[in-house]
Write a structure and sequence with these properties.
It is a single chain. By secondary structure, this protein is an alpha/beta fold. The protein has a single domain, classed as TIM Barrel (Alpha-Beta Barrel), CATH 3.20.20.70. It is about 30% helix and about 15% strand. The protein has 5 helices and 4 strands. The longest helix has 13 residues. The two termini are about 30 Å apart.
Length: about 140
């Protein structure tokens, strides 16, 4: 539910703006599965992710071209997902390019590779949200 006070005072967040603005001049919100690699093998996962390198992943140059094309169609948000996006060697280069193009970036991660240094890098790269999947055995 929208916080009317925040909206009235001009303090609504980016998500409120995307959800409630009247003009719909923005393009699609895109989930970019930037890698199939993953350091886990969760039974529930829809992705056939493994720790192997996959030859069908976009190159850095092609991924940057994709981000440019998304910016051209006014895509407001790109969600980097996978697999585990933090396993992509050029992730921070792609995040920098997305930021340069004016794209808002968010990440979906399993969280196992996050530490204070990586969190600081993500914040420095302008990532506005990191979603962490919490799944596991009932004993946890």
């Amino acid at each position: 539910m929208i916080n009317i006070s925040k909206l009235y005072c001009g303090l609504a967040g980016e998500s409120d703006d995307l959800r409630y603005r009247r003009e719909k001049s923005f393009g699609p919100i895109v989930v970019y599965n930037c890698t199939r690699r993953c350091n886990l093998r969760c039974l529930h996962c829809y992705s056939s992710s493994e720790s192997n390198q996959f030859s069908d992943e976009l190159t850095t140059a092609r991924a940057k071209q994709l981000l440019s094309e998304l910016a051209d169609v006014n895509c407001p948000v790109v969600l980097f997902s996978g697999g585990e996006p933090l396993l992509r060697d050029d992730l921070f280069e792609l995040l920098a390019e997305a930021r340069r193009l004016g794209l808002r970036t968010v990440i979906s991660s399993n969280g196992t590779l996050l530490d204070s240094g990586t969190a600081g890098q993500l914040a420095g790269a302008g990532v506005s949200y990191v979603g962490i999947s919490i799944d596991g055995d009932e004993q946890f």
